[in-house]
Amino acid sequence: MKVVNCRATLKGIVENKFEFSHIVCGEKFYIGKVSVQRDSGVMDSIPVIISNRIVSNIEELEDGMNISIDGEIRTYNVHKEHKNTLQVFVFAQKVEFFDTLYYQNEIYIDGYICKEPKYRTTPLGREICDFIVAVNRSRRISDYIPCICWGRNAKYVSELKTGNRIVAIGRIQSRKYKKMIGEETVEKETYEVSFSSVSEVEND
């Protein structure tokens, strides 16, 4: 039986038309974004990759369509301008369309802390912890997923060590930030999983 170490469920709105990304063994993959609203009203803009074997008319998808996606988070490094940039996206394994708008953003991860957690307090006094989780796939492939947690969970994760296995539930979110490139300020967007529940488990 296949072991599933990552599950992603998104329900939201097609944000832009899906464009051709790449082809593998004759199978075409397209990338676009899906908007999902948080309980707070903030919208997350999540990159999604879909195969034309799952949605045959994928190029015909229109902005504003209600969409449901089941899949998993995937990551890969892109070498650009003499440095590696981590690309984070949801890889769709099942896609459905529906008439009534309904938002859902749920991520389940079973993986290993592979970068020492960094604990800090924000200027507003909130506790936060950043870390990377390695999630194993088949064929000895791993995805390295940027993660954050808050409050008591942040303190808890900060005391874990590299190599510790965790099981966690949360949401994938987008975050915009500004970066100086030369003399120009450029707005960029990054993606991470924000955990609401996390616990250490014993390695098998």
Question: What do these coordinates show?
Answer:
This protein folds into two domains: 6-106, Beta Barrel (OB fold (Dihydrolipoamide Acetyltransferase, E2P)); 109-200, Beta Barrel (OB fold (Dihydrolipoamide Acetyltransferase, E2P)). It has one helix spanning 151-158; strands at residues 6-14, 19-24, 27-37, 43-51, 66-80, 83-97, 104-121, 127-136, 142-150, 165-181, 184-201. The protein is mostly beta strands and 204 residues long. β3 (27-37) and β4 form a beta hairpin. Strands 1, 2, 3, 4, 5, 6, 7, 8, 9, 10 and 11 form an eleven-stranded mixed β-sheet that branches. The protein is globular. The relative contact order is 0.18. The protein has one helix and eleven strands.
Provide a compact summary of the structure.
By secondary structure, this protein is mainly beta. Helices cover 4% and strands 67% of the residues.
The CATH architecture classification of the largest domain is Beta Barrel
Low-confidence stretches: none
- When the domains are counted, the total is 2
Number of strands: 11
Assign the CATH superfamily of the largest domain: Nucleic acid-binding proteins
End-to-end distance: 16 Å
CATH topology of the largest domain: OB fold (Dihydrolipoamide Acetyltransferase, E2P)
Radius of gyration: 18 Å
Question: Which terms would index this structure?
Answer:
mainly beta, globular, 11 strands, single chain, OB fold (Dihydrolipoamide Acetyltransferase, E2P), 1 helix, 11-stranded mixed β-sheet, 2 domains, 204 residues, 4% helix
